[in-house]
Amino acid sequence: MTQKFDVVVIGAGPGGYVAAIKAAQLGLKTACIEKYQDKEGKVALGGTCLNVGCIPSKALLDSSWKYHEAKEGFAIHGIEAKGVSIDVPAMVARKNSIIKNLTGGVAGLFKANGVTLLEGHGKLLANKQVEVTDKDGKAQVIEAGHVILASGSRPVDIPPAPVDQDVIVDSTGALEFQSVPKKLGVIGAGVIGLELGSVWARLGAEVTVIEALDKFLPAADEQVAKEALKTFTKQGLKIRLGARVTGSEVKKKQVTVNFTDAEGEQQLTFDKLIVAVGRRPVTTDLLAADSGVDMDERGFIFVNDQCETSVPGVYAIGDVVRGAMLAHKASEEGIMVAERIAGHKAQMNYDLIPSVIYTHPEIAWVGKTEQQLKAEGVAVNVGTFPFAASGRAMAANDTGGLVKVIADANTDRVLGVHVIGPSAAELVQQGAIGMEFGTSAEDLGMMVFSHPTLSEALHEAALAVNGHAIHIANRKKR
């Protein structure tokens, strides 16, 4: 007999598993299909984020920062640390144990909420039927009242540097190095390239980042991007902008990369090469020809603002649809869709999705950049505050970077908060909370912030918008 569910979710990443749990909490009979297997051949939940993305990279970022601090940053505190060394396999093993913990946690949440896990590959057929094929090739068809497509994304491959997961690796392979490469190349100066490059740079690798674009971090606010480029260069990352990779050759466990830049043909040799040029949606064999769901030429599924596809009752969320490829965006889309299936009028505010780069210093922003607003012809007032003037940052010996608040010149409404520096992600989230409620810069300036905290930098930047900062000199109004 065919199994029937109110909701069938294909994919158990941060979009899919959250959607499945929420749907079950709303009283809907829910199944979630997942095929990803861990190294032991067991199905692992959590998608890219938990298994080979956000979480493992943060584990390595934190481990490498602690090592760097012990080696370079303890002396100023009067702490003597001699002979500090790094055990890379132990660091990677710790990362793996965190993954196991979290993926097991999702499985526990499925049980607690009554979500049925179906192991295998999910494919949408016509009339909201879903085919599930297990690892042995055995298929079953289930019926769904509603379907949520949440199959995620995978790293983009480029012909000039084919990944072998040995010498040339993608972001997944870069999490598995068992020793520090002497010379490391990174193709792509985006979020993933910068995070992974900085992990191995802190551990002693000589890192060169090759970026095809002429502009560094074009999605970030220009002032913040300039500060970031200066900081990373000071940290020893060699960032080559306007450099287009034309080919590569692996010989004797080394890779020679050919690229062209403003100076012409260039060649560099590395012990390892990370290809981090972005991600693409996983929609291969996801949809039967007669499923009725439309995709574009790049494999993204067409949806409206409520994540509805061209087929009534079929939704798509996360990395397979338009917008930023961010775990938190996928999760909130999952919540919205589950709520709508249950008959509620849920909406999502796409204008206030924070972005974070977990380098050190962190880079984060929410809302619009100064250049975007200028291009739109919006008159703005801008307030900045450097961490160099923050007592709490000085106490922590972490004074690089700044907070920037952008407000509408006519209404004073905050339109963007941009931070590079300690706890940037947490400070930007404070800005996002305020912006969700339509805060003005004056509102933020009138709130009481505890002292001494890093948050005070946001307070002072908001005050600076209207020339009222206390702990830095205000710009004279023309």
From TrEMBL:
<dbReference type="GO" id="GO:0050660">
    <property type="term" value="F:flavin adenine dinucleotide binding"/>
</dbReference>
<feature type="active site" description="Proton acceptor">
    <location>
        <position position="451"/>
    </location>
</feature>
<dbReference type="GO" id="GO:0004148">
    <property type="term" value="F:dihydrolipoyl dehydrogenase (NADH) activity"/>
</dbReference>
<dbReference type="InterPro" id="IPR016156">
    <property type="entry name" value="FAD/NAD-linked_Rdtase_dimer_sf"/>
</dbReference>
<dbReference type="GO" id="GO:0006103">
    <property type="term" value="P:2-oxoglutarate metabolic process"/>
</dbReference>
<feature type="binding site">
    <location>
        <position position="319"/>
    </location>
    <ligand>
        <name>FAD</name>
    </ligand>
</feature>
<keyword id="KW-0676">Redox-active center</keyword>
<dbReference type="InterPro" id="IPR006258">
    <property type="entry name" value="Lipoamide_DH"/>
</dbReference>
<dbReference type="Pfam" id="PF02852">
    <property type="entry name" value="Pyr_redox_dim"/>
</dbReference>
<feature type="binding site">
    <location>
        <begin position="188"/>
        <end position="195"/>
    </location>
    <ligand>
        <name>NAD(+)</name>
    </ligand>
</feature>
<feature type="disulfide bond" description="Redox-active">
    <location>
        <begin position="49"/>
        <end position="54"/>
    </location>
</feature>
<feature type="binding site">
    <location>
        <begin position="325"/>
        <end position="328"/>
    </location>
    <ligand>
        <name>FAD</name>
    </ligand>
</feature>
<keyword id="KW-1015">Disulfide bond</keyword>
<keyword id="KW-0285">Flavoprotein</keyword>
<dbReference type="InterPro" id="IPR012999">
    <property type="entry name" value="Pyr_OxRdtase_I_AS"/>
</dbReference>
<keyword id="KW-0963">Cytoplasm</keyword>
<comment type="subunit">
    <text>Homodimer.</text>
</comment>
<keyword id="KW-0547">Nucleotide-binding</keyword>
<dbReference type="Pfam" id="PF07992">
    <property type="entry name" value="Pyr_redox_2"/>
</dbReference>
<dbReference type="InterPro" id="IPR036188">
    <property type="entry name" value="FAD/NAD-bd_sf"/>
</dbReference>
<keyword id="KW-0274">FAD</keyword>
<keyword id="KW-0560">Oxidoreductase</keyword>
<feature type="binding site">
    <location>
        <position position="122"/>
    </location>
    <ligand>
        <name>FAD</name>
    </ligand>
</feature>
<feature type="domain" description="FAD/NAD(P)-binding">
    <location>
        <begin position="5"/>
        <end position="334"/>
    </location>
</feature>
<protein>
    <recommendedName>
        <fullName>Dihydrolipoyl dehydrogenase</fullName>
        <ecNumber>1.8.1.4</ecNumber>
    </recommendedName>
</protein>
<dbReference type="InterPro" id="IPR001100">
    <property type="entry name" value="Pyr_nuc-diS_OxRdtase"/>
</dbReference>
<dbReference type="InterPro" id="IPR050151">
    <property type="entry name" value="Class-I_Pyr_Nuc-Dis_Oxidored"/>
</dbReference>
<comment type="similarity">
    <text>Belongs to the class-I pyridine nucleotide-disulfide oxidoreductase family.</text>
</comment>
<comment type="function">
    <text>The branched-chain alpha-keto dehydrogenase complex catalyzes the overall conversion of alpha-keto acids to acyl-CoA and CO(2). It contains multiple copies of 3 enzymatic components: branched-chain alpha-keto acid decarboxylase (E1), lipoamide acyltransferase (E2) and lipoamide dehydrogenase (E3).</text>
</comment>
<feature type="domain" description="Pyridine nucleotide-disulphide oxidoreductase dimerisation">
    <location>
        <begin position="353"/>
        <end position="462"/>
    </location>
</feature>
<feature type="binding site">
    <location>
        <position position="58"/>
    </location>
    <ligand>
        <name>FAD</name>
    </ligand>
</feature>
<keyword id="KW-0520">NAD</keyword>
<feature type="binding site">
    <location>
        <position position="278"/>
    </location>
    <ligand>
        <name>NAD(+)</name>
    </ligand>
</feature>
<dbReference type="InterPro" id="IPR023753">
    <property type="entry name" value="FAD/NAD-binding_dom"/>
</dbReference>
<dbReference type="InterPro" id="IPR004099">
    <property type="entry name" value="Pyr_nucl-diS_OxRdtase_dimer"/>
</dbReference>
<feature type="binding site">
    <location>
        <position position="211"/>
    </location>
    <ligand>
        <name>NAD(+)</name>
    </ligand>
</feature>
<dbReference type="GO" id="GO:0005737">
    <property type="term" value="C:cytoplasm"/>
</dbReference>
